[in-house]
Write a structure and sequence with these properties.
Protein name: MYND-type domain-containing protein
Keywords: Metal-binding, Zinc, Zinc-finger
Shape: globular
Distance between the termini: 20 Å
Number of helices: 2
Structural class: alpha+beta
GO molecular function: zinc ion binding
Order of helices and strands: EEEEEHEEEEH
Strand order of the largest sheet: 1-2-3-4
Oligomer: single chain
Pfam families: zf-MYND
Strand content: 25-35%
InterPro entries: Znf_MYND
Amino acid sequence: MMSKLQTIQFTSAHLPNGTPSEEHPLTNPGELLLCRHAADNTFTNPNFLLIHAHKNPFDDYQAPMFAMLTASSDDTVRPSADPLKKTFWMKTYSENKGILEQLEAQNILKRTGEKVNQGYVTLIGVETVLQRGQWSETCHGCGRLEQLDSVKPRMMRCGKCKDRYYCNKECQAAGWPAHKEDCKRICRVLAL
């Protein structure tokens, strides 16, 4: 049985405080979810982002994504000793400044102690404190992101590698050609 999605209370200096309205569809505090995104299907540096926990009732065009957390690097973050947790390089500068501290305070992410310099910036190695099932997933067939107010049930995972998620059997069949080789590689890495 899949765990319940863990929400994150988030404040931003760029948003007003108060109840959302047509004039201010995004306000503090915001309710977000940690989401593993399907882009690039990277197993050793998975793509995590913050998404809005609910669809915005005041803005049909509001994308679910709030912030991309993962930064690309040729260096690999040391994997977690816990197979239900993930590690990745996090971007903590520019628009992400202050996000890691809020996520650490709410026991969502923790630093691994690893850092890598890339040009003028330093990427921080982080590990999820949340376990698989407590963060939102992305369907590897259609690209849908899990949000709390969705009428669809939680996603199903690949029966072989147990690392890719799908809305339903149709999405799994649609995503299989792209996932087939990746599935074999993940099974080898995890010795499944």
